[in-house]
Hints:
The protein is mainly α and about 425 residues long. It is built from 13 helices and no strands. The chain has helices at about 1-20, 30-55, 90-105, 115-140, 160-180, 195-215, 220-250, 255-270, 280-305, 310-330, 355-385, 395-400, 400-405.
Amino acid sequence: xxxxxxxxxxxxxxxxxxxxxxxxxxxxxxxxxxxxxxxxxxxxxxxxxxxxxxxxxxxxxxxxxxxxxxxxxxxxxxxxxxxxxxxxxxxxxxxxxxxxxxxxxxxxxxxxxxxxxxxxxxxxxxxxxxxxxxxxxxxxxxxxxxxxxxxxxxxxxxxxxxxxxxxxxxxxxxxxxxxxxxxxxxxxxxxxxxxxxxxxxxxxxxxxxxxxxxxxxxxxxxxxxxxxxxxxxxxxxxxxxxxxxxxxxxxxxxxxxxxxxxxxxxxxxxxxxxxxxxxxxxxxxxxxxxxxxxxxxxxxxxxxxxxxxxxxxxxxxxxxxxxxxxxxxxxxxxxxxxxxxxxxxxxxxxxxxxxxxxxxxxxxxxxxxxxxxxxxxxxxxxxxxxxxxxxxxxxxxxxxxxxxxxxxxxxxxx
Length: 414
């Protein structure tokens, strides 16, 4: 579990940091990487102070109470409700890594134009308005959508399809539209400065995702193995589907398309990774690659919104599709590491899908989207009261690296 936690942290830095920084222009490389790195530091402190408690402590159906504030009572003894076979501290630190990467994913939508101070304030507020309540509803004791621990609408989210990808993806779309387009978009050509860096970042994401999904079994078990296999199959299928779609439409399969497809497959299978068979995961990946390509290559082009690094097209759309497909393809819904409120094993399940569950998944997705949209707009409004959100035209032309951090990732004169 500690290794899985480290793998999930690797997804943010260096994985996401490299994936995102390679896609921006040279003048914004350090500024883009700093956004991911800052989340590693800032979210950690917020999580320790109150975030973990608000998500996993008992409370009401929407948010937990503060009994674990400042990690009070979080020690080496297992938490019998969530993870009876590992230390409570291990469970806490593992879940922290999910909280770190979620707001970091949003930064891809407003890359190259949001102030660093505004990003920090927005992300902090967003955690309280969106991530903490949605995570508690899906994973926390008594959460409204928790399928195992007293939820009113059972939504199955094995590793964060709704909690991480739907919330971050739809929040990304909101921020992109609210902030407006980059200077010159879409008429000025804004090509990635280093697809090599993005390629390395994507490969790190693929590897790290095994900690994300397989680690969510909370044990070295057959369930972890099943999630690991499903994750790998979906990523491979997503890459193949995106490359095929590009080849059909453009005559060439690009490196950027291949890595985007793999990430789309990963994001889409996350929700059902512990519940589906290997070739169901292949189907999920193929659907993910095709649908996310359509959103990025055609829908975004049609409506001209400037989701800089396609956080919505890959994570938001992938998360939503994956949420629904979990209800379609799930063949088992069982996590032996969890127990019901009465102490019985959490062995809820079905064979070959359950049509009614698709409805529950859809409701869960809509609730996640609602929290993301409303919470994001409120967070942006509050942030704007204290600091300007966007760089000025001069600052944006000069670049985030020099203006915000006084450094150059690359010498722009060479």
